[in-house]
């Protein structure tokens, strides 16, 4: 697995934060794949699920698949979304778990978390919380969540091994990890090339 030096790792984190500060303002020209409602439809989210959210919320979606479909999320469960962005999956998970459950979304970008807070308000969802967090160090006790979900975040995380270790730590025994992401096909780059290629 690609392991950048500490210096390169810091640079990558600041480039990721800068990119998502801009994304929180507008998705225009930021991605090479469909985003917003078109992205949700392309990712085969059921229409009735998409219909639960106003267009002003779905327009901020920039995931690459539908991780919520990977097992049935039911009433009363506790779900954690890693790299929640503007909060679309976390808000949809909140609708699935209902008022007896809880959905938590975390993201490294303060601006994306502000956007998620705004989307929480617009969608009138109460059982969802958002917090600025780096996924390699989750501020949660062990075995708290029934489901950990993540959509298009792991490919950006510098320390993927630690992010996955943290995800497993906070999952209850028998909990489920739902991942939608992009993978590199071919050989890994050396660390000097990594930053230039991080968003390709
Ligand atoms: C492509 S966006 C996907 C957002 C959201 N999951 C969605 O489907 O719309 C990736 C998100 O991961 C976040 N991210 C990247 N690296 C992260 C890290 N190390 N810790 C937490 N969040 C991270 C970014 O800030 C960004 O909001």
From TrEMBL:
<dbReference type="GO" id="GO:0032259">
    <property type="term" value="P:methylation"/>
</dbReference>
<protein>
    <submittedName>
        <fullName>Methyltransferase domain-containing protein</fullName>
    </submittedName>
</protein>
<dbReference type="InterPro" id="IPR025714">
    <property type="entry name" value="Methyltranfer_dom"/>
</dbReference>
<dbReference type="Pfam" id="PF13847">
    <property type="entry name" value="Methyltransf_31"/>
</dbReference>
<feature type="domain" description="Methyltransferase">
    <location>
        <begin position="74"/>
        <end position="193"/>
    </location>
</feature>
<keyword id="KW-0489">Methyltransferase</keyword>
<dbReference type="GO" id="GO:0008168">
    <property type="term" value="F:methyltransferase activity"/>
</dbReference>
<keyword id="KW-0808">Transferase</keyword>
<dbReference type="InterPro" id="IPR029063">
    <property type="entry name" value="SAM-dependent_MTases_sf"/>
</dbReference>
């Amino acid at each position: 697995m690609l392991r950048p030096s500490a210096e390169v790792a810091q640079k990558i984190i600041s480039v990721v934060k800068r990119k998502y500060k801009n994304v929180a303002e507008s998705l225009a020209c930021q991605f090479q794949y469909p985003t917003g409602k078109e992205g949700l439809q392309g990712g085969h989210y059921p229409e009735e699920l998409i219909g639960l959210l106003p267009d002003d919320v779905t327009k901020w979606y920039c995931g690459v698949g539908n991780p919520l479909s990977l097992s049935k999320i039911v009433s009363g469960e506790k779900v954690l979304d890693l790299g929640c962005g503007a909060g679309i999956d976390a808000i949809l998970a909140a609708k699935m778990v209902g008022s007896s459950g809880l959905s938590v979304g975390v993201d490294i970008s303060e601006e994306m978390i502000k956007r998620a807070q705004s989307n929480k308000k617009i969608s009138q969802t109460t059982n969802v919380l958002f917090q600025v967090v780096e996924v390699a160090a989750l501020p949660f006790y062990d075995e708290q969540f029934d489901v950990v979900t993540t959509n298009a975040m792991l490919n950006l995380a510098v320390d993927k091994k630690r992010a996955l270790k943290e995800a497993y730590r906070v999952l209850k025994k028998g909990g489920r990890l739902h991942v939608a992401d992009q993978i590199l096909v071919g050989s890994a780059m050396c660390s000097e090339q990594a930053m230039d290629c991080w968003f390709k």
